[in-house]
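Field: COMPLEX_INPUT
Field: COMPONENT_COUNT = six
Field: RESIDUE_TOTAL = 828
Field: MODE = joint
Values follow.
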Amino acid sequence: MGSRERRAREKEARTEHILGVARTLLLKKGLHATTVNQIAKLAELSVGTIYLYFKNKEDIFAALQEEGLMLLNQKIVAAVSAAATQQDKVRAICSAYVEFSETQSSYYDVITYFLSTSEQFFPKRLKTRIDRIGSRILIYCSHVLEAGIEAGEFRKVDARRHTIWLWGTLNGLIQFRKMEATMLQKESYRKIVQYALDNFLDTLVVK
Amino acid sequence: MGSRERRAREKEARTEHILGVARTLLLKKGLHATTVNQIAKLAELSVGTIYLYFKNKEDIFAALQEEGLMLLNQKIVAAVSAAATQQDKVRAICSAYVEFSETQSSYYDVITYFLSTSEQFFPKRLKTRIDRIGSRILIYCSHVLEAGIEAGEFRKVDARRHTIWLWGTLNGLIQFRKMEATMLQKESYRKIVQYALDNFLDTLVVK
Amino acid sequence: MGSRERRAREKEARTEHILGVARTLLLKKGLHATTVNQIAKLAELSVGTIYLYFKNKEDIFAALQEEGLMLLNQKIVAAVSAAATQQDKVRAICSAYVEFSETQSSYYDVITYFLSTSEQFFPKRLKTRIDRIGSRILIYCSHVLEAGIEAGEFRKVDARRHTIWLWGTLNGLIQFRKMEATMLQKESYRKIVQYALDNFLDTLVVK
Amino acid sequence: MGSRERRAREKEARTEHILGVARTLLLKKGLHATTVNQIAKLAELSVGTIYLYFKNKEDIFAALQEEGLMLLNQKIVAAVSAAATQQDKVRAICSAYVEFSETQSSYYDVITYFLSTSEQFFPKRLKTRIDRIGSRILIYCSHVLEAGIEAGEFRKVDARRHTIWLWGTLNGLIQFRKMEATMLQKESYRKIVQYALDNFLDTLVVK
DNA sequence: TATGAATGAGTCTTCATTCAT
DNA sequence: GATGAATGAAGACTCATTCAT
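Field: COMPLEX_OUTPUT
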């Protein structure tokens, strides 16, 4: 009987579908302005059905966030493995991150949306679960720097702090994308990121 | 007649008062949980009166943001003038910024709250007005770098880009404060900021 | 300024009005089937207005109950003072109680409705407040029996227990009114009450 | 073929099973909070199946009530047959009733739940069917009193009315159990029942 | 100017019932 | 017979905004 299997697959497909719609709405209208009724309508489902797949409105968005962080993690790991030198690995991380913020912009926005949403919406329970995934990524990137140091390719910096610095920088600069037209005066934020990365590597690479 | 004057002054005082209350509530409860009725009650005014001074709930929070940016601008200018060397001026900017984000955390949060809130809450009209104030600050900081370059104290970097890089970094790292307990593993984000600044200056200062 | 006064009076009138509508609906449809929307509609008010006068659906019905118990208390006290002999006072209590259950049947039903609604709907807080009013009535009735005993009109019974017995009996029998057509086979429950009271007094009065 | 038989037996067993679950839930959570989905889950059946055995949610609870009254009837008959004197038979009825209200409190509550629920939940059709079973119990008890009168053990009272009085009293007092902590001031309601019964028998027994 | 009672559309969530498989 | 996913009307409650006083 593939019936049970088919059911399971359909269930997952439906879940994905709802999540997709929710993501779209969240990013178009923001967290609070996105209502369950809207999600239902856009998903062409009844409200009740939404609640069959998710316990809560909260649950929907938490799922979205986890999904996003997982995906980011994968992208970074993949990018790093494809790179040869340690310096290239660092560049790869940045590219992966920036690219993720663009191609998966919906996910990226959801993540930062909640990063900056201090405990107001999410209960601690969900917050920490998500922070943990973030930590995993952080540790992974630190390892890359450490490897570079051990390989003699990088100077003996504080790997952890350097990583946090890099990450903060990326987050901060990516946020400026929304201001390309105004504050950046039409200069592509990507060029700024590239500029920052080059300078960052200057502090790191042994010459 | 000083009567008209007095009235104008009273009007402004009232406006300030409402804004103060709104800020308090916004930061305690978040944007959505702050209701006009609450503002009215805490301000010991009637709801109607609030609408006499502000067209909208939206308007209240936009005013809050402008106020905040103005204040930030002042702080930075003051900090810079107090510093002697160009390097100190840069350090002063950072301190001022981080301090502002802590001591005037209410204002800082309001600013970033909306910075990261893509057109969700504010109509474009308000957004650009705010970006413009941001630009002014940016330009001011660029001038400090340029002055340092001209003085031979700094290397011939791209002042504008270096400034944006710095600002992005600061913003990004300040956001991590919320994660001191989790992702930063109890390390003070301030130390991270210091670490980043030292490294940043390494890319800038002529040795 | 009678303005503030008038406001207060209007406010109370409105409250009464809502309570009246709520009572009507509660008794016609039961607690759960009575919705705030219905109350609003029947009261020709908007839902929001209902919530201006009552914090909760719960609050509405609690108010109803207290009102009812207060009224009952008054009726009993009045009836007792009008009676001459102790025996007459006891009869007066019963009459008052039964009459209350008929003429103020709405109130009576609300009271017993909640008496029998074990903590499911009301939080303890409200339950005990109401029980307290009930206790007051109970004590008052006990005093009548005690007075009769002291006057040598009644036998030396346990006044408190005799009172509870009487009250239980009345409650139990009044409940049968709903079954006049079926279980009582068309005999008026009032006659049954009369019969019970006569026999009850036989256990009490010194002959 | 025993097949048809077996099927009938299985059907009945299933019905009993559902009823059992429904009773459990009803008493744990109250009528309104008990949902058909819950019943299905606890019964390890699908919702659809529930609707195969019962037309309605209403139907389930009506069946529950009938079951309960049947059981009560049995208990009373059994208790009476075990008693020797007529007085003991009356005491036996009371004990049986009070005990039923305690040990089978689930059933008792269901019965009174709906007794006091004027046509709110049940359509007349169901109400009268239930009243009829109640009547049967009433008549049976009357017979006990009549037998006592005929035996010269009881005074020549109106057997029917005396029975209703007794029953009303029991019901009324049992309701007070919920108020042991408050209105009864920690005195066991059972003692009150005993007290009432003793006094009741005083009006009945020939001395 | 100032008030604050009133509005009502809109929020999240529940649940009895149906029906295709 | 049995399943359980899907429905959608209905529930309690909120809140930005208006307007008669």
